[in-house]
Write a structure and sequence with these properties.
Strand 6, helix 7 and strand 7 form a beta-alpha-beta unit. The relative contact order is 0.19. The chain has a seven-stranded mixed sheet with strand order 3-4-2-5-1-6-7, sandwiched between helices. The chain has eleven helices and seven strands. The chain has one domain (2-252): 3-Layer(aba) Sandwich (Rossmann fold). Helix 1 crosses helix 11 (241-252). With 254 residues, the chain is α/β, with parallel strands linked by helices. The protein has helices at 14-27, 42-48, 59-66, 96-106, 112-119, 137-145, 157-176, 196-207, 221-229, 233-236, 241-252; strands at 2-5, 32-36, 81-82, 88-91, 126-130, 148-153, 182-188.
């Protein structure tokens, strides 16, 4: 199963959700690959901390290799590194992605990620793809390569407006490039159960028939501690209520 975590709005927890769900899958014995396509590299830092991957490893070198003619393409596995966590591997990201985007777009390389993941299908049970907060070349590549899309949502008016636009963009990718892509669900993040607005917004989304997943993920300082220590919640504090919510959410996925 290949999942892309995508929202065109920034600050909704894409990297946190990607890494924590991937870490749970790996902790349960699945062979898992995280692909970071966001030049900010938040998922990369979350998993590697201060350790730096070799410069020839990562999503930027992978896409750069697709611009060079070769009789035999370099295997995608060459661009993947280990993390400190068992069963969990990473294709890291860095700022070099910015310089490549225009060249990749003009050379129509948007199918290359899907082709590479097809060749890795026997090596990984799950692939989780973290995306930038924009509908750009890398996001389209991820949506074309994925089986399912998870949409983080943080319960305000701006997020709601962005959600409808996002769903239209996903439908366009489905129609033009990837008929098998499905919106697996909307992940409600930083939910405040005692506040009226989040409750109302989520209830309205459900009434509209949108696939809102449960449980909702609450806000917690434990997430910032998890980031600071470069430890997904399942490794930092398995018994914490937010960790348990992530585990329930993971079980709710098909």
């Amino acid at each position: 199963m290949r999942r892309v975590v995508f929202n065109q709005k920034g600050g909704v927890g894409k990297s946190t959700i990607t890494v924590n769900l991937a870490a749970i899958a790996a902790q349960q014995g699945q062979q898992v690959l995280v692909i970071d396509l966001d030049r900010q590299g938040n998922a990369t830092r979350y998993l590697l901390g201060d350790a730096e991957a070799p410069p020839e490893v990562g999503s930027a070198p992978f896409f750069d290799s697709t611009l060079k003619f070769a009789v035999r393409e370099q295997p995608a596995g060459d661009f993947i590194c280990e993390t400190p966590f068992e069963n969990l591997h990473l294709m890291p990201a860095d700022a070099r992605l910015d310089d490549l985007a225009g060249k990749l777009e003009s050379r129509a390389k948007v199918q290359k990620l899907r082709q590479a993941l097809d060749k890795l299908a026997t090596e990984y049970d799950q692939v989780w793809i973290d995306t930038p907060p924009a509908l750009n070349f890398y996001t389209r590549s991820a949506l074309i390569a994925a089986d399912a899309c998870l949409i983080p949502f943080d319960c305000d008016a701006f997020s709601r407006a962005a959600l409808y636009e996002l769903l239209q963009n996903v439908q366009e990718i489905q129609a033009d490039h990837n008929e098998g892509l499905e919106v697996e669900g909307i992940v409600v993040n930083q939910f405040q159960p005692r506040a009226a607005l989040p409750q109302r917004v989520v209830e309205e989304l459900i009434a509209e028939g949108l696939p809102v997943l449960q449980p909702y993920l609450g806000a917690s300082v434990k997430v910032k501690e998890s980031h600071e220590r470069n430890l997904p919640l399942i490794h930092l504090e398995p018994g914490h209520k937010l960790t348990q919510a992530y585990e329930q959410l993971y079980r709710a996925l098909r």
